[in-house]
Automatic annotation (TrEMBL):
Gene Ontology cellular-component annotations: plasma membrane
Protein name as catalogued: Multisubunit potassium/proton antiporter PhaF subunit
Membrane topology: Multi-pass membrane protein
Keywords: Cell membrane, Membrane, Transmembrane, Transmembrane helix, Transport
Segments forming a coiled coil: none
Family annotation (InterPro entries): MrpF/PhaF-like
MF-aspect GO terms: sodium:proton antiporter activity
Family stated for the protein in its record: Belongs to the CPA3 antiporters (TC 2.A.63) subunit F family.
Species name: Phyllobacterium leguminum
Compartments where located: Cell membrane
Superkingdom as given in the UniProt entry: Bacteria
Pfam families for the chain: MrpF_PhaF
Residues spanning the membrane: 6-26, 38-57, 63-87
Amino acid sequence: MSVVILFWSLLIAQLMLVTAMALAVVRLILGPRAEDRVLAMDAFYIGAMLLLVTFGIRTGSTLYFEAALIIALLSFVSTLAAAKFLMRGEVIE
């Protein structure tokens, strides 16, 4: 019984994450300002990371968790760089 519940809950979570990523892409394309686009890209990265985590739970492979960790680190650094660029106009001082 618990395997069936785990399967359906992971499937529903993955569908919701794909929907959230699609909405983030819409905001990325239609965002009127650069700040909206940076926020949408960050939301897309978070959705991709969580989608990889759910794939890792479903398959039991640790490779997905490592890829999710790399995406999390890269998204954090890229969001900081984009925010610094939007505030000061330069990334490297």
